[in-house]
Amino acid sequence: MDDDNNRSLDFKEFLKGVNDYGVMIEKEDAMELFRKFDRDGSGTIDFDEFLISLRPPMSNTRKEVIMQAFRKLDKTGDEVITIEDLRRVYNAKYHPKYQNGEWTEDQVFRTFLDSFDSPYDKDGKVTKEEFLNYYAGVSASIDIDVYFVIMMKNAWKLN
């Protein structure tokens, strides 16, 4: 659908793509659908917005184990994970880029946070919603709740 290969779809590309795939839809309905995909209201749908809109909802079991991991990181209890929270949980001095002098401790922590942070607002703070959204993407590739829970418990050393 991305005819100009810019990794996003404008409405014209979206409409053409929908028609190319044989979805018969009125232009007004296509515009409404386009707006649902265009989560940031930019007038284009980027790849992340496209994937977020297509993935299935997570079960409560998955959401609960994700929140256990979030609470483990959120040491201040303010429902936002920051560098200060990470200082209380992890020792950045073991990171290879810290050890070779390439990064500071703050850079190690910030890179860690950036992996969970919203792609639209990399502010060094990870909210519950951003953390859940990140793991919704991971969750979409794991079919069975039990496997997802085991993966999370092992990754975050949860009980």
From TrEMBL:
Residues covered by the EF-hand domain: 1-24, 25-60, 61-96
Any matching Pfam family: EF-hand_7
GO function term, MF aspect, one: calcium ion binding
InterPro entries, A to Z: Ca-bind, EF-hand-dom_pair, EF_Hand_1_Ca_BS, EF_hand_dom
Signal sequence annotation: none
Domain of life: Eukaryota
SMART domains according to UniProt: EFh
Keywords: Calcium, Metal-binding, Repeat
Protein name: Calcyphosin-like protein
Taxonomic lineage of the native organism: Eukaryota, Metazoa, Chordata, Craniata, Vertebrata
